[in-house]
Every structure is written in structure tokens, then in C-alpha cells.
């Protein structure tokens, strides 16, 4: 697996497996962040932030023609004792606090939702079981806004599980008080025809820790935009992701970690496997270290495993540094085909081909599976990977 690190602008890998390039352009959107959908032009696919996305498959989310229906999604929240679950209007001060929409779909979702769902963990509360948010598609169009709020020194694990069939645009905000610790596992296990576009915003308080694990399997088109901002010094963010892209699927993960505050850390690791004709995965990793962010320590990595011909990966790591007073900064992108030598090695020791393939791919994902920390989700993920591999040609 060839690794691209500190790639000159415009560099690409050979063939149609992957494109890896370094550019500060992707860090800057075509319009400033805004709550108003009218501040964003209808995208045409030539814009930097839309050039990889199949707009014709977004079912009208990008141009305002997708109208919410009463059969969009059903949301069920299961929370331990002491956690507050409420619905609030757009006037609530917490709505939008973690970050403004940065593209037209996110602004459309903000303009169209009726009630935001807020899950709050009081200060100094340490939960011993996860908060589970089930989002089940019922075949229609929906716009949503979810807020997860942790008070100072609170600790929680939140699982957001997406299933069923829907056309969904949403904003998800994470608000971490000083010293809080939040782990979020977002699972995209949609039916084959679902479309899911979402912006995830995390605002990290002083000495707070945020860990995000994004798992993407299902759906026709899934486009997620995680963003991290630091409210004060000492914040830490870990962004992990794994995706398995099948024939015809488009899965896109676009990340921005904005280091505008001194002495904060971030670590990004995303891994994907692809199989089948026209399977398309896109990973954009933007890290911006602003002039005031002295003492920053950051690294980002994307690795992709191509299991069959006909699949394509676009991997674009971007690192923009405006101060030299940092602890460390780096990035890497690597894409390669399935290693037949590893498969032969295992088969030579009596392991059947199907099991050997599962072991190789399982080993590729093992580091990230361990980050989930929720046993039933880990077991479900491993079972899903095994099921996906059964379809490999």
C-alpha cells in the first residue's frame, strides 16, 4: 500500500484507484458560514466542496426541491437516569452554538427543521451506560437538528444509529463543557436507497476531550461533514471513521479541524474498504492551524483498501499552518489493492479463502473497531463486515 505524505499540490496516484492532493482551497468554502439558505448558491458540481458529490442523486436536498413529509424519520432516545431529553425551538440559545451551516444543504436543514432534540448531561455526571439515539427512516424526506450537551466534567458515550430508508439532511451539535469527556458513535446503516447529508459540529471546552467514531455502510449517497472547534485551551479531539463502500454507493466524509486556540490536540484516522463497480469513497481531511494556535499538536491519516476492480477513492488531506510555534503537525494518505500475498500466506496454513479474507480485512479495521467501546456495536460491525465480504466477487 503506497503512502502519500506531504504531497505537492496537484499530485495524483496512477490509474483510477485514488486521487490524493494537497490544497488549501478545500479549507475555504465558496460562501461564508450562514444560517440562511439564500446565502448559498445552488451547487452545480464545479465548486470545490461539491466536485466529488453526485448532485443528481441527492433527491433535491441541494436545490430546495426536497419537501419534508410526515413519514420522514422516527427518532427514539434511550437515556440513563439523570439525563434530560427535550425538544426546543430555533430560538433556544444552544441551537447553532457549535457552528453555523457551511453549505446549502446544512443551511436548508437549519431553515426547515421544526423542533431540535436536545440531550443534556448535567455537570460532573459520569454515565455508566450509553445514551442511544435511534434514527429510523420511514421512506420520506426529513430535516433535523440534534444537540448533545455535556456540562463541566461530565462523561458520556452517545450512540446515534441510522437505519431504514429516508432522504435526510441534518445538523448535529456537540457542546462540551470544561473538562467534559464525550464519545460519539455515529452509525450509518441505511437501506440501499437512502440519502443522508449531515454536518456535525463539535465545540470543545477547556481541557475537554471529544472522540467521534463514524461508521458508514449503507445508503445510496452518504455525505458527512464533521467539524471541530475549540472554545478554550487544552482541548483534545480524536476523529475516527470506517466505511465499507459497495457497488454503486457514494460515501463522502469531509472533515475540518479548526485550531484557532493555543495548546490543543487533534488526531484523525479514517479507514475504508471498497468493492464493486462504481463504488466511490471520498475523504477530505482539512486541518487549519491559525496564527494564534501556538502549541498545537495534530495528525491525520486516511487509508483505503480496494478489494475489487471498478472502485474509486478520492483522498485529499489538507494541512494549512499559519504559525511555526507548534508541537507537531502531519498527514498521510494511503490507498492500495487487496494484498493477495497475505491471503496466500493464510491459505497456505490451512485457513479457507473466505475466512482468510475476513481476517485480512478485519485486521485492517481492528484499530478503529476497538475505539468504539460499545460491545454490541462492535459485534454488529464485525458481523456486517463479514456479510459485506460474502458479496465480494
From TrEMBL:
SUPFAM superfamilies: Stabilizer of iron transporter SufD (SSF101960). Coiled coil: none annotated. Residues 137-364 form the SUF system FeS cluster assembly SufBD core domain. It holds the Pfam family SUFBD_core. It comes from the Bacteria. InterPro entries: Fe-S_cluster_assembly_SufBD (IPR055346), SUF_FeS_clus_asmbl_SufBD_core (IPR000825), SUF_FeS_clus_asmbl_SufBD_sf (IPR037284), SUF_FeS_clus_asmbl_SufD (IPR011542). PANTHER family: PROTEIN ABCI7, CHLOROPLASTIC (PTHR43575). Belongs to the iron-sulfur cluster assembly SufBD family. This is Fe-S cluster assembly protein SufD. It comes from Streptomyces endophyticus.
Amino acid at each position: 500500500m503506497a503512502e502519500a505524505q506531504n504531497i505537492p499540490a496537484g499530485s495524483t496516484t496512477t490509474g483510477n484507484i485514488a486521487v490524493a492532493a494537497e490544497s488549501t482551497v478545500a479549507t475555504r468554502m465558496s460562501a461564508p458560514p450562514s444560517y440562511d439558505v439564500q446565502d448559498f448558491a445552488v451547487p452545480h458540481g464545479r465548486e470545490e466542496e461539491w466536485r466529488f458529490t453526485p448532485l443528481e442523486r441527492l433527491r433535491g436536498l441541494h436545490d430546495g426541491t426536497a419537501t419534508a413529509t410526515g413519514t420522514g424519520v422516527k427518532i427514539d432516545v434511550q437515556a440513563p437516569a439523570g439525563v434530560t431529553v427535550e425538544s426546543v425551538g430555533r430560538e433556544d440559545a444552544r441551537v447553532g452554538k457549535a457552528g453555523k451551516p457551511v453549505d446549502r444543504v446544512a443551511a436548508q436543514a437549519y431553515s426547515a427543521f421544526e423542533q431540535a432534540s436536545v440531550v443534556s448531561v448535567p455537570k460532573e455526571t459520569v454515565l455508566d451506560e450509553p445514551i442511544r439515539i435511534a434514527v429510523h427512516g420511514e421512506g420520506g424526506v426529513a430535516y433535523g437538528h440534534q444537540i448533545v450537551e455535556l456540562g463541566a466534567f461530565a462523561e458520556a458515550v452517545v450512540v446515534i444509529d441510522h437505519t431504514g430508508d429516508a432522504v435526510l439532511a441534518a445538523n448535529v451539535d456537540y457542546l462540551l463543557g470544561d473538562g467534559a469527556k464525550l464519545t460519539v458513535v455515529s452509525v450509518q446503516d441505511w437501506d440501499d436507497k437512502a440519502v443522508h447529508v449531515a454536518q456535525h459540529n463539535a465545540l470543545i471546552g477547556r481541557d475537554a476531550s471529544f472522540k467521534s467514531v463514524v461508521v458508514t455502510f449503507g445508503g445510496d449517497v452518504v455525505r458527512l461533514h464533521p467539524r471541530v472547534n475549540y472554545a478554550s485551551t487544552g482541548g483534545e479531539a480524536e476523529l475516527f471513521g470506517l466505511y465499507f463502500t459497495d457497488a454503486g454507493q457514494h460515501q463522502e466524509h469531509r472533515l475540518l479541524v479548526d485550531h484557532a486556540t493555543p495548546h490543543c490536540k487533534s488526531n484523525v484516522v479514517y479507514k475504508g474498504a471498497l468493492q464493486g463497480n462504481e463504488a466511490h469513497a471520498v475523504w477530505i481531511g482539512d486541518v487549519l492551524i491559525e496564527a494564534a494556535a501556538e502549541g498545537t499538536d495534530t495528525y491525520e491519516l486516511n487509508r483505503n483498501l480496494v478489494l475489487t476492480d471498478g472502485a474509486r477513492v478520492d483522498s485529499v488531506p489538507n494541512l494549512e499552518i499559519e504559525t511555526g510555534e507548534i508541537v507537531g503537525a502531519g498527514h498521510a494518505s494511503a490507498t492500495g489493492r487487496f494484498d493477495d500475498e497475505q491471503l496466500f500466506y493464510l491459505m497456505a496454513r490451512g485457513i479457507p479463502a473466505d475466512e482468510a479474507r475476513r481476517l485480512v480485512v478485519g485486521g485492517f479495521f481492528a484499530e478503529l473497531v476497538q475505539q468504539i467501546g460499545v460491545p454490541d456495536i462492535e459485534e454488529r460491525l464485525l458481523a456486517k463486515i463479514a456479510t459485506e465480504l460474502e458479496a465480494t466477487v
